Amino acid sequence: MLIKDLPEDARPREKLLARGPGALSDAELLALLLRTGLPGKNALQMGQEMMDTFGGVAGLLHAGPQALAAIKGLGPAKRAEIVAVLELARRALAEQLKEKQLFASPQAVRDYLQLQLGSRPHEIFAVLFLDSRHRLIALEELFRGTLSQSSVYPREVVIRALALNAASVVLAHNHPSGTAQPSRADEALTKTLKAALALVDVRVLDHFVVTSSQAVSMAEMGMV
């Protein structure tokens, strides 16, 4: 069935104009970007298929141009549009965190970390460097691979904090397994980094464990 054959209140564009973007599903919003589908498959069906393939919006955010190229019917122009929109979403959240105190909007911090780290297939250790007013200076991915105390070097974190003139930091790493529960190794790593950064008067405010569905604060659990 073509989208134009759907009832008017079920067509994504008409639904958005009448009820606002919040009324649309992820697949419907994606269908608006796709505009057209394939023979026997309309844009809405194609959008839902992409959501299923990538495991939702979080997975789509990290799909990248090469993964998108594997989707039948998704030509260079459509791929470029999708990648551009996803990058705008990341930048919008980053700008929000740079303009406000980080912990004035804790959900924005979680959303930002999930966008950046949540669906990565391998472990990444990242640091949010903050100024004296707890506004974001930068997020940097410093280490990749299997993370442990021995593979995350406190010296490198300290060097970047000094170079960026950071007053405090928020640590973050992802669990590709999908389990957001901090481990004993995570707690030990936090203590090591906290001690190293304290030597140069940089505070560790929190450490988030991130998956595609949540970002758990170790500070809220009394582990920082």
Structure, described:
The chain has nine helices and five strands, in the order αααααααββαβαββ. With 224 residues, it is of the alpha+beta class. It folds into two domains: 89 residues, Orthogonal Bundle (DNA polymerase, domain 1), CATH 1.10.150; 116 residues, Cytidine Deaminase, domain 2 (3-Layer(aba) Sandwich). A five-stranded mixed sheet has the order 2-1-3-4-5. Strand 1 and strand 2 form a beta hairpin. Helix 8 crosses helix 9. The longest helix is centred in the middle third of the chain and has 24 residues.
Secondary structure blueprint with pairings:
Layout: H1 12-19, H2 26-34, H3 43-54, H4 57-61, H5 64-69, H6 76-99, H7 106-117, E1 124-130, E2 136-144, H8 154-163, E3 168-174, H9 184-198, E4 203-210, E5 215-217
Parallel strand pairs: 3-4
Antiparallel strand pairs: 1-2, 1-3, 4-5
Helix pairs in contact: 2-3, 6-7, 8-9
The strand line-up of the biggest sheet is 2-1-3-4-5
Write down the CATH class of the largest domain. Alpha Beta
CATH-level-4 superfamily name of the largest domain: Cytidine Deaminase, domain 2
Could you say what the CATH topology of the largest domain is called? Cytidine Deaminase, domain 2
Which structural class should the secondary elements be placed in? alpha+beta
Report helical residue fraction: 40-55%
Shape: elongated
Number of strands: 5
Q: Unreliable segments (pLDDT under 50, ≥5 consecutive)?
A: none
What is the second-level CATH architecture of the largest domain?
3-Layer(aba) Sandwich
Number of helices: 9
Percent of residues in beta strands: 15-25%
> How can the largest sheet be summarized?
5 strands, mixed
Indicate the mean pLDDT.
82
Taken together, the total number of domains comes to: 2
Rg (CA only): 20 Å
Cα separation of the termini: 55 Å
